[in-house]
Amino acid sequence: MTVPFADHQVSRRSLLRWGAAAGAFVAVTSLTACAGPTGLPGKGTLTLALNRSLVSLDNKLNQFDAAVTVQRAVRQGLTEIGPDITPRLVLADRFELTAPTQWTVHLRPGIRYSDGTPVTVEDVATALEMYSKVQGGFVASFFPEFPTVGKIDDSTFTLDTKKPLPVLDALMANILITPAAANKPAELQGGVGSGPFLVTKFNRGAGTYSLRRNENYWGEAAGVDRVEVQFLAEESSRVIALRSGAVDVIDSITPDSATQLQGLPNITIQRASALRMNQIFFNFRKPAGHPLANAKVREALTMAVDGHALVHDVLVGSVIQADGVVPPSTKGYVKTGEYVYDPAEARRRLASLGATGLTLKIIWETGEFASDASIMEALAEMFGQVGVKTTLQEFEAGGDISTWRQGRGGEWDLLGNGFGGPTGQAINVLQGMYAGTAEKERTRDTYQGYVQPAVASLIAQASSEPDEKARDAIVVKAQQAAWDTWPCVWQFVPKSILARRTRVQDLALSDSNSYPLTDVHLEG
Amino acid sequence: MSTPSVTLGSGPHGSDTPSARASTLDRRRIKRSEAARRRSASRLKLWIGAISALVVIIPILLAQLLPLPDPNAQDLGNRLEAPFSAGHLFGTDQLGRDLLSRVLHGGQISLTIGILAVIVSGLIGVVLGSIAGFYGKWVDVVISRLLEAQMSLPLLMMLLLVVALFGPSIPVITFVIAIAQWPEVARLTRSLVLVEREKPYVAAARTLGLHRMLILLRHVVPNVFKQASLVILLLLAQAVLLESALSFLGAGPQRPFATWGRIISDGQDYVTTAWWMVTVPGIFIVLLVIGVNLLGDGLRDRPRRTKGLVALLSKGKNR
């Protein structure tokens, strides 16, 4: 019997039911797809998420900690700072002090760039020239003077200075060598290097770089095929990316993030001490007569800061309060004093010095150091306790804080800033921060306007002292002299904290908060 | 054809009227009617909207009077305290500051910026929209193209750019949100004025020799303002959201001012260990935005002329 057609008619209700069921099915399957991690790194690809934008694979202008790892994977220096904080040979196989003002260097045989061309003496000479020509450069600030290259043969040359420069082997670890024709007195973006990786793609604005293993590498081949570098400014985003497996390594994380990640399967936390000082540095460009131009006012202000609370409560014990002007891990460090918290005394001293009713403007760039905003807000509260008003100005990453730091953007009183000691030598850190002169200040090449002739003179003496013992003695004096000028309202030495997926093996985090990418291997 | 009279059930008035006869339009059917359903839905929206918005707005307005700690007073020894801990109903943040106090005081900033922004954008929108609609011709072309050009720009990017150029102060943020929102109001006002200007009272006013500007200000604008003001109310929610988005992205008022966006932004880093830092301000934003939107929707959907039905019902009752 034929069933009447009318019985099979689809009612509006059943149509809606079926429609709803189909919609639910589509939604559930889509959500299931979304729930799993997407964009996972490939088997042989290591993905790094940096907290600051890697604007260049060159270090002429900037060299924040995590950048070193990537920069050194592409470009190399004659030497590098090893895990024991002493210089070791890379492109050179001989680097010797042959006279008080002369070092003799021999290039390692067979060293080549990724395009197969050899590394030459001319490349070294050009590199030194380009670093010296960059105004306001980070690396240049460590050099009391740039050496000149005297070619002896195709692979041997001398580095000559006017005054003795006994730590030149450590300093040269910061000069990255590039083919002379491709080098410029500016930050280089892509280009050719002699390192274990080569750049295949980059986007400076987004801070992303794609690296591939350099098959022509003169040394032992890198352990991973590819490296992807990403920039994720938000710490929470980096933590989530690591947890989901979208990235393999995140560095310079806060202790709070480390707490979140601690104990999670497939995630390992690594810690190291640091060759870095994080500071709340005074603006030394204040005119004479301004309260901050007086060291006693600066000292009184330090007494308003509860360093113990900052270290233990805000930074959860992940840092140590500084008791000197250079990081304790550096060679030549000496304790020069202590920050004392005494708000009543701070108030009394400020009143006796006529510095009442002070208003301080604190500036910093987002991500300058872990928990930076919390520290600044805590400082504002502490200054408020001694009657000092504060205004805070946070600059977004990539903003114009560098113009402000040079005193060209606007008026400020305190700067939140980190300063690394990439050579591991106290003398170089002193040179970078406290060796400012009036001449340097004309081109704004001093550290926040710090020009103290007595301190600069001691640093100059130490830099040119060939005798190690005598040099160390002067370095001690220079540190004390710098401390006595009360350059920072507070400073601390961070511990480097890095989190990685456990598939990442052989990652040797050093005190410089970087690690050799070539040694890293991926499991599975 | 006679008009059927209305009987409302078997009430005393209905049954007492001898001329009354049964009608299909009884109370039950009226209740089920589309108009009645819409009316009850709009009433529900009004109630839920008002309650949601007031739950947020009243504590914000009373923040100074409530026994709360200073929103910026830190207690580093008691950081990240969970809600309902001693003295902290909503817990504390990463610097030991009372979260309830920060959310309420932050709400004052967010609401102030939002209200000021909608007032300014409403003013600009109503003025330019009514001028465009009433005068037409080249004035309309210029204003319409201007608002279309602005609406084609990505809103958040534009706001971030302006804040980056002029600095993240409260007046700047208020102004940029106001500038971002005026096209919505202007477009609606223009379309309302286009309808109004064709009405006989406008022609009558013209015939009486009233100046065009006077007609616009005295007669046309008051007639469209009520409808335009509903859009302005809806924009308040958008303004609060924009302010929170700017603060979240770091372009809000500078620290230590608490704003909802900043509290959430700061709380991101503690989302797995101190969930309340993002949840509490998030709930406040959700309640306010939903509340204001429902309130606006309810006011918009509310039946405008109920006189006819009321008269009809009374007539039926009196029979």
Automatic annotation (TrEMBL), chain A:
KW Amino-acid biosynthesis (keyword) present: no
All residue ranges annotated as the Solute-binding protein family domain in the record: 90-438
Protein name as catalogued: ABC transporter substrate-binding protein
Alphabetical list of Gene3D superfamilies matching this protein: Dipeptide-binding Protein, Domain 1 (3.90.76.10), Dipeptide-binding Protein, Domain 3 (3.10.105.10), Periplasmic binding protein-like II (3.40.190.10)
Leader sequence segment: 1-35
SUPFAM superfamilies assigned: Periplasmic binding protein-like II
Domain of life from the UniProt record: Bacteria
Keyword annotations of the record: Signal
Pfam families: SBP_bac_5
UniProtKB/TrEMBL annotation, chain B:
Record has Transcription as a keyword: no
Pfam families: BPD_transp_1
Keyword Transferase assigned: no
Matching Gene3D superfamilies: MetI-like
Topology relative to the membrane: Multi-pass membrane protein
Major localization class: membrane
Subcellular location: Cell membrane
Residues that span the membrane, as ranges: 46-66, 109-135, 155-180, 200-217, 229-253, 273-295
Biased composition annotated in UniProt, kind: Basic and acidic residues: 24-34
Occurrences of domain ABC transmembrane type-1 (ranges): 107-296
Record keywords, A-Z: Cell membrane, Membrane, Transmembrane, Transmembrane helix, Transport
Region (Disordered): 1-34
Membership in a protein family: Belongs to the binding-protein-dependent transport system permease family.
Protein name as catalogued: ABC transmembrane type-1 domain-containing protein
Species lineage: Bacteria, Bacillati, Actinomycetota, Actinomycetes, Micrococcales
